[in-house]
Amino acid sequence: MTLLNRLRWAALSAAHLNLFTEPNTQNNMEKIKAGLNIAIFIFLAGFIGLEVWTLISHFLP
Hints:
Largest sheet: none
Structural class: mainly alpha
Number of strands: 0
Strand content: under 5%
Radius of gyration: 15 Å
């Protein structure tokens, strides 16, 4: 399993957990939006981290 797939599964898991454990939202659409926001954040943070690591490791001996 590649790192990108792991990031995708982590993002989907966070969206799924948020969908069923967020206590303050009343509407299902709000829950889905909040879950997707978390999923996008985790995915982008992981992707940016991967890019930064690639850039740093390129200059390391």
